[in-house]
Amino acid sequence: MTVRAERPGDGGAVHRVHEAAFGRPEEARLVDALRYSKAWIGGLSWVVTEDEVVVGHALITRVEVDGAPALSLAPVAVLPECQGRGYGSAVVRAVLDAAAATGLPLVVVLGDPGYYARFGFEPASEYNLVAPWPGVGAAYQVLPLPAYNGEPQGHVTYPEEFDELN
Predict the structure, then answer these.
(1) Which of 27, 33, 50, 121 could form a cystine bridge with 22, CB 3.0-4.6 A?
(2) Is the pTM of this model over 0.85?
């Protein structure tokens, strides 16, 4: 297993991973769109490979919390036949380590609390962060980064590219 930042030429493989993992094209198209958006941050798209084949991907992009900059982990995917072998955890840890170096305060994620707690994510509501989607409850989580000082708080706004997931 090798975990590394996405390189030029990985886009097609990343697309295939998301389409296979989610069983639909929307998340794969989201990554493709984000790659060319103002939300993209170089160095925050990571892949995990086995025998030089991309088998997993994790992406962190820009979001805003009441106008202040923050980060979002989404989407994360591993090929179905490779799930349960530690690929997802490895690529998530790597991209979160890279995010900590940005100087931004926090990363939000919408996902299984049982899974994301292992990385230090906590309920976003405890940090006064409000998801843009109603009813997500405990699935909306936050990881405070080293630069976090109690701010920002408020409503989280995602790039318009996420609107296509509805």
Answers:
(1) 27
(2) yes
What pLDDT does 106 receive? 98
User: In the beta sheet, which residues pair with residue 77?
Assistant: 57
Paired tokens of 20 = 């296979």
Rg of the chain (C-alpha set): 15
Residues of the chain where predicted confidence (pLDDT) is lower than 70: 165-166
CATH of 2-165, one of 3.40.50.1100, 3.40.50.10330, 2.60.120.10, 3.40.630.30: 3.40.630.30
- For 44-101, give the DSSP string: -EEEEEETTEEEEEEEEEEEEETTEEEEEEEEEEE-GGGTTSSHHHHHHHHHHHHHHT
The shares of helix, strand and coil residues in the chain, as percent rounded to the nearest 5, are 35, 30, 35
Write down the pLDDT at residue 156.
97
State how far the Cα of 45 lies from the Cα of 33, in Å rounded to an integer.
Answer: 13
What's residue 111's pLDDT? Answer: 95
Query: Mapping DSSP to helix (H, G, I), strand (E, B) and coil, where does residue 29 land?
Result: helix
Where b means 16+ CB within 10 Å and e means fewer, 41-53 reads beebbbbbbeeee
| Torsion (CA) 148, 149, 155, 160 in degrees, nearest 10 | -30
CB 1 within 8 A of CB 86: yes
